[in-house]
UniProtKB/TrEMBL annotation:
Positions annotated to bind Zn(2+): H68, H72, D166
Record Pfam families: CBS, Peptidase_M50
Organism: Amycolatopsis rhizosphaerae
Protein name, entry field: Zinc metalloprotease
GO biological process: proteolysis
InterPro entries, per the entry: CBS_dom (IPR000644), CBS_dom_sf (IPR046342), Peptidase_M50 (IPR008915), UCP006404_Pept_M50_CBS (IPR016483)
Family named by the database record: Belongs to the peptidase M50B family.
Cofactor note: Binds 1 zinc ion per subunit.
Location of the CBS domain: 315-375
Membrane topology: Multi-pass membrane protein
Length: 380
């Protein structure tokens, strides 16, 4: 989902990163607290104190978000799912999970654990503010109180029953439990998610234009994002159903044109690239192992001198390897292939068996869709 993030380290074995837009949240919360919330709640301090407390509170808010996502991630891993990473961004946090929850119960636990931690944190912050009321200065108490209330709101908001919110996953788990049909359950949760998104947009616009509150725009933007994500879940679910048990080896190009990693870039252009109709090439080591991917677009950025002096193995990107027996439906969750840039290398027993480009994936999806409508289309 997010290609460029600032790494923030690993927690409980999960890589955490921040998208640049998280800076907007930090600035917005600091500004909201420093300019209005804190001065109103605890008057009489020098102006800079409000800003410092506001910024500190904003950082603690991000840490609360991280705790929410980490809880999802740890429970997902406990139930055998993969966790790619956690990303913090403008609209909160995202734990990118791989694979599917094994049972409705696992689905429920993974989904409900995040909001549960937010509610718990909210209670702890408010309880802490209450207990420390006699010792802490009013400004610190206001910050704690804001964190408490915000975490409670975050917990409740995430429990709204539409995908991709956590409440949507809870709904999915429930429908799955009662009908035994996971795909239908996911579609139900996604449809409710679309309705929720529409409601947020309407409320946000009403708040902005009827009440003159600019924060309404944020709600409308959130609604717009939710609608898009719910739509993506609907189409993704449909695609997964249609792909069924199709494996990577069935959709790969079984005759890839490999590039020799020990060649110079110019040698590769003369010997290989100029003679075939490809823009992306798998790069092999001298002993035949797949070691990377190179695109013609990348090589255009090199000077003629560099092309003569550089080996292909030194300029290729590390490969995304997939096993030939991997289900294409699972691949959809894991990879996003940019046309002309990304190429999956399909390996069988350590050797390159084929490649999958965005075109190959799109073709597989289109054929699966056509097969879903008309049984006369031959299988590829
Ligand atoms: Zn969550």
């Amino acid at each position: 989902m997010f290609r460029t993030t600032i790494p923030l380290g690993r927690y409980a074995g999960v890589a955490v990163g921040a998208h640049w837009s998280v800076v907007i949240v930090l600035a917005l919360i600091s500004w909201l607290l420093g300019a209005s919330v804190l001065p109103a709640a605890a008057p009489g301090y020098p102006g800079s104190w409000y800003w410092i407390t506001g910024a500190l509170t904003a950082v603690f808010f991000l840490v609360s978000l991280l705790a929410h996502e980490l809880t999802h991630a740890v429970l997902a891993r406990h139930h055998g799912m993969g966790v790619k990473r956690i990303t913090l961004w403008m609209l909160g946090g995202v734990a990118e999970l791989e694979g599917e929850p094994p049972s409705p119960k696992a689905d429920l636990l993974i989904a409900a654990s995040g909001p549960a931690i937010s509610l718990l944190l909210g209670g702890l912050f408010l309880g802490g503010a209450y207990l420390a009321a006699a010792v802490l200065p009013p400004l610190a108490l206001s910050g704690l109180g804001w964190l408490g209330v915000t975490n409670l709101i975050l917990g409740v908001f995430n429990l709204l029953p539409g995908a991709p919110l956590d409440g949507g996953r809870v709904l999915r788990a429930a429908v799955w439990h009662f009908t035994g049909d996971r795909a239908r359950a996911a579609a139900t949760a996604a449809k409710v998610g679309q309705v929720l998104g529409l409601v947020f947009i309407a409320l946000g616009l009403a708040e902005t234009f009827l009440l003159g509150q600019w924060t309404g725009l944020w709600l409308a933007f959130l609604g717009w994002f939710l609608m898009g994500a719910a739509q993506a879940e609907l189409t993704g679910g449909l695609a997964r159903r249609r792909l069924g048990d199709l494996r990577a080896r069935a959709i790969m190009d079984p005759h890839p044109v490999p590039a020799a990693g020990w060649f110079t870039v110019q040698g590769f252009l003369d010997q290989t690239a100029g003679t075939v109709r490809h823009r992306l090439f798998p790069v092999l080591s001298f002993d035949g192992r797949p070691i990377g991917v190179v695109s013609l677009a990348e090589l255009t950025r090199m000077t003629p001198d560099q092309r003569l002096a550089t080996r292909l193995s030194d300029v290729c990107r590390p490969p995304q390897l997939v096993d030939a027996g991997e289900r294409v439906a699972d691949l959809l969750n894991k990879v996003s292939l940019r046309p002309g840039t990304d190429l999956l290398l399909v390996v069988e027993q350590g050797r390159l068996a084929g490649t999958i480009s965005s075109e190959d994936l799109a073709r597989a999806l289109e054929l699966a869709a056509l097969r879903g409508q008309d049984h006369n289309v031959p299988a590829s």
